[in-house]
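TEACHING EXERCISE
Course module: macromolecular assemblies
Task: Read the component lines below, then compare them to the predicted structure of the full complex.
Student: A.B.
Group: 4
Components provided:
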Amino acid sequence: MFGELVTVEGALDLLDGALQKAWGIDRPWEEIPLLQGLGRVAARDLISPIDLPGFARSTVDGYAVRARDTYGASESLPAPLRLVGEVAMGRMAAKPLGPGEAQRIATGGMLPPNADGVVMLEYALELGDGFVEIMRGISPGENRLQADEDLSLGDVIIPRGWTLAPADLGALAGVGFLKVPVIKEPLVGILSTGDEIVPPEALPSPGQVRDINAYALAGEVLAKGGQIHLGGIVPDDYHRLQEQVARLAGECRMVLISGGSSVGARDHTRRVMDELGQVLVHGIAIRPGKPTIIGLAGDCLLLGLPGHPVSAQVVFQILGGRALDLWFQRRPRGPGAVLAARFGRNLAAAQGREDYVRVRIVHREGEFWAEPILAQSGSINSLVQAHGLVRIPLEKEGLRQGEPVKVHLFAGEVARWEI
Amino acid sequence: MFGELVTVEGALDLLDGALQKAWGIDRPWEEIPLLQGLGRVAARDLISPIDLPGFARSTVDGYAVRARDTYGASESLPAPLRLVGEVAMGRMAAKPLGPGEAQRIATGGMLPPNADGVVMLEYALELGDGFVEIMRGISPGENRLQADEDLSLGDVIIPRGWTLAPADLGALAGVGFLKVPVIKEPLVGILSTGDEIVPPEALPSPGQVRDINAYALAGEVLAKGGQIHLGGIVPDDYHRLQEQVARLAGECRMVLISGGSSVGARDHTRRVMDELGQVLVHGIAIRPGKPTIIGLAGDCLLLGLPGHPVSAQVVFQILGGRALDLWFQRRPRGPGAVLAARFGRNLAAAQGREDYVRVRIVHREGEFWAEPILAQSGSINSLVQAHGLVRIPLEKEGLRQGEPVKVHLFAGEVARWEI
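Instructor-supplied answer key:
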């Protein structure tokens, strides 16, 4: 039924190689309004066309001074400076500062020529006779943001491949980007197969179940930045499957075919892939998810996923997620949603496979514990209840209670516990 | 300039109390198509109207049997059972199983009456004479999913207040939800103030800067599920500010007023809030973000945020994020995006304030280290470079190098490092 099982690492390598060839280097991209850019992926390095802020600014309310005029000043021995006006907000500070002079300035105001620092309001006293007493000396540069301190002309603000976050929109607005070039979202076709599957709107007869996978997978694809093209349900019929996969493969960059867990149905999926293109992998050393098939038809990735919802989701997150990262040429910005926890009980791993265990996180004795959810892989509710996955590598025989593990949190997990 | 500073905890308590009164218990909600539900918040408990799968199913390819007919079977002493047909996928398994009988069944097939388990294909051998030899005994229930094993009629699938994740769409489709009731997204008005602020499309003259905060805050609001209503830039003029805040407060559930970092501008924001409603808090023991003002005008929350981009973002994440959680009556599903790391260097905390330190995560010596970014709070680029925030509580004097900390990751941090 299978040839030799491929390791997860081996499958990912084959996937990477095949997609690099099929998709090449360039990606279609589009320019969209800045505010629509949240969560989209930068199509090229976004480079600052200016220095930011562009002029030396005060970071406090106070008095622009030449630092050397304040050296040694203290409450008992204040330095009197001549007050020669005020910097207007949003205006060029026209009047240069002479020796022994000070100008009033508000936070964000432009430092006048020759000023190299700002004395905070609370350390100065206006005498009403045209002088202000400085009661604390400052160093050059104190309470001042330099002209290019935030960004310099030519700096890469956002490298190609970053997923745009809220702060990025601010930074891009700050240097005058009104639009942002982003990689186009790839269309991902989704098919469910099996004589027992009916659409959610149908009333299932005994022996029938509603289509769970199409909707769970659609959610996964959307969360990873893809666009979905629902291809419906195909009964266990070779010709209809072939016809439908061929149609979707012509329109999409990736087609997910879930179900067909039975031997016969799997054979159909395999035959269809053989006919439309080539099969790269059939059978992966992973639990859940062993019967996975990876194929390629032209520049369209075909993923034959198991019918069990849990298996389909785990395999999609690993293989489909990787493919979408390759499409977007995503560069990780940081550690991602990984939580260190202790494993909640002793658990033996599958022999010769990588195990992916669904877990719930509980907070106990000041630590996070990852409690495995041991429902069958057909159970959608176990996925709804899970917070993430723990991977047990091939070479490990299992996990002991209390052993430190890293939990890969699901994308939906953005709400926070206060800890 | 300020009264006594309120602690962060105190400010959150005042916010909670005021919004509970202003917004009451009920929220406007709408029914939307299931596939549009990703990331939206359930407006009520979503309850299963059926048992799922609804009938006993096989979880493997093999032979439906009565477990007791297989007891003691082994390769050397197989149990021969009479093969009396095959369960068709998607059909009711009509023919009950008699003693000593087996029926072929595929994964997902409906168990015939009287069958209580399934023998896997690889442990059975069809003899071709109408018999199948079972080479491994099974227990009752083996390789079988019970009729209500995934979900029972009346089970809460998704509690009110959960943000919908991919698996949830699958579970809801599985029990026949085509639409999902979600809480309406609140409209959040965003205003920037200051004579020095120009829109991103303008070419700033010396002394002027483009509007960073409106776009960074818009991103934050969108990431937390709100809808944005950009109110533009208001110069440092009391009457125009008053007019614009009043207009937005009439249309929105929350108005963010950023900027006005100078004493005069802050006074305007404060006066406007006093006139339109009431000020709850003016000045919070937090760094960055001390000059924050919280007010209420009718059922609209007014947040006066500092002008520095970093300060504005930190304060929004704490106060604005909390307000949006209260609007959606969100229930956390798990630990959220929290990373345990070691702090990268010695750092003194502000006296009498909670400190929020931007950090980058690096992986070193097999551990995550949180390296503080020590740029000024006016720096937008430091936010772009940061992965999250580390909180130093009021009572701590600082952090030591190597000290364990929890990093609250920013929402955009969904890419993953392989570790």
